Amino acid sequence: MAIRATSFPRTALRLLILILFVSLGAGSAVAQNLPDGFAHETVFPFSAGFANSPIGFEFLPDGRLIVIDRDADVFVALPYTNTFLKIHTVPDVTSASVHRGLLAVAIDPAWPARPYVYFLYTHVDSIMHIAMYTASGDLTDPGSTNISLSNHFILIDDLVDNQDIHNGGTLRFGPDGMLYISIGDDNDACRAQDLTKLQGKILRIDVSAMPDTGTGPPPKALITPSDNPFPGPDENEKLVYAWGLRNPWKFTIDAPTGDLYIGDVGAQAWEEINIITSAGYTGNNYGWPQYEGTDSLTEPWLQCGVNPLTFADYQYPHDSTSSYSVMAGPVYHGAGTSLSFPPGYEGDYFYQEAFGENATGGLRRLTFDGNAWVPAAPAPGQPDAVNWGTELGFVVDMQLGDDGALYYSSMFTTLIPRGIYRIVATSATDVEGAGASLAQGTWAVPNPAKAAAGTTIHYGARRAAAMTMDIYDVRGRLVRTLTTTSAPGSIHWNGRTNDQKIAGPGVYLYRLQDSGETVTHGKVTLIR
Fold first, then answer.
1. Cα angle vertex 200, ends 196, 206, to 5°?
2. 292-319 b/e with 16+ CB inside 10 Å = b?
3. Model confidence at 474, in pLDDT bands (50, 70, 90)?
4. Is 397 exposed, middle or buried (0-12, 13-18, 19+ CB in 10 A)?
5. Half-sphere exposure of 90 (CA within 13 A, CB side)
6. Which of 73, 288, 312, 333 is found 20 to 30 A from 494 (Cα to Cα)?
């Protein structure tokens, strides 16, 4: 988790007080403050079954939620109901400190053809594990809790966890089908500058050939992508995607581009947001521990940096009360539904201050001005000049839903009960920056769809023109090309490839383009 612990005693004392505050459930529920034209809704209220620390969630393609508790329990939950079921407890997990426990979950992008669920957790032997389980039961029924997990297969089991802090804690699949993993420096700062160590890094692994026989772990060569940026010869180095990070607690991946948005929790003065542009990427070193933001740190034990360095795309100061643990959220893309934000939000980036204003949940928004990422102009009714939204509680995971809403999980009962919530638009209130070239939303019906019947993809577009829709599998291979001229409109994909073979079950990505410019994009799942 992001809670900071450093060599600076006053910071540690502040954290101890705050941890006690949130752990005891101090405070009472208050109204959430959002700009005009937006509403806050409960997706799933955590009952007594979630009494501990629900730290993350993931959507199945049919809309069900897989929710994880820091104390190692895994649940399947049906949104907008009180229906949930504990389906597994990951064995040998230690959650003895707030940074430890079952930290992250990811769903295989080819679900249900590959019915695998992935976890990152701290093991009782002071090692972090990355493991995968095979799911069985009702894999495509949105109304069922009948899912079970079995076949515990270890992918990596040598992530040293000597200290009980700075463990990172995110798993995400990119549109390239690779699994990306954030690992903190384990409070051993110079590990972040050593490519032979996996701490203080973003890792990128290939799980397409897994599970192998047995229980794992496989040789690292079998999970090493051929196009990772560092050639080795060390086998750990070959798994590294980015380095020089202190505690990249949360990151997100922008599905249309594959770009990573990393929130790196600072130590003394600055929080960082680091953005990896996937096109042409050759590997970045973000400078910790010699640099925090653009500040050069002079302590002798921090002088282990390796040049060249890449500075943060955005940094902001923290202090003792309002800002000191960044939680990376998503890039916003509308879905063309009534819940989608106005067009002026397209491409903006949301991040959360997990401890902002003593854990009141400050949600903030950046926009790209053509040269750099900068705070967006305040929206009408925004609670203050810095925060787009407040009073959201202790936010530990935030993701963009297929319906265009922002979904998030609040882990502690402070200002808001534990639960999964969403922020939706309620009117057409616009914001500064809307433009005619912004991408429009899309959705597919049905989704999931039977491969033999196909699905109809609905989309928005600002003008009628000859447009091309390309459909790719999760490995990035072109499956089908369709054409259309309607604006807005829909296009039916009959579930077949360009050579008229029925496409196999799995997740497919589609992109609508007008004269080479992306109009909209989305994903659809095919089942048998």
1. 70
2. bbeeebeeeebeebeeeebebbbbbebe
3. low
4. buried
5. 35
6. 333
Strands of the sheet with 284-285, listed across from one edge: 170-173, 179-183, 201-205, 240-243, 284-285
User: Nearest to residue 331, comparing CAs of 350, 353, 314?
Assistant: 350
Tokens 């616009």, located at residue: 430
For residue 235, count other CB atoms closer than 10 A to its CB: 12
Distance of CA 189 to the CA centre of its chain: 24
One-letter identity of residue 39: A
List, in order, residues 6 or more apart from 489 with CB less than 8 Å away: 458, 459, 461
Q: What is the 3-state secondary structure (H, E, C) of 221-283?
A: HHHCCCCCCCCCCCCCHHHEEEECCCCCCEEEEECCCCEEEEEECCCCCEEEEEEECCCCCCC
For the segment 334-351, the average pLDDT, to the nearest whole number, is 90
Using one digit for the tens of pLDDT, what is the confidence trace for 4-32?
444 333 334 334 333 433 333 333 445 68
Overall average pLDDT of the 69-92 stretch: 92
pLDDT band at 355; cut points 50, 70, 90:
low
> Quick check: bond before 231 cis, omega within 30?
no
Contact 15, 110 (CB under 8 A): no
Cα separation, 237 vs 235, whole angstroms: 5
Residue type, 122: T
pLDDT tens digits for range 289-330: 999 999 999 888 889 988 899 999 999 987 766 667 899 999
d(Cα 386, Cα 77) in Å, to the nearest integer? 34
**How buried is 61 (Cβ within 10 angstroms: 0-12 exposed, 13-18 middle, 19+ buried)?**
buried
Tokens encoding 81: 């109901």
- What pTM, to 2 d.p., does this model score? 0.80
What string of DSSP letters covers 74-129? Answer: EEEE-TTSS-EEEEEE-TTB--SSTT-SEEEEEE-TTTTTS-EEEEEEEBTTSEEE
Token duo for residue 193:
């500058």
Structure token pair of residue 188: 């051993």
Preceding omega of 289 cis (within 30 degrees of 0) = yes
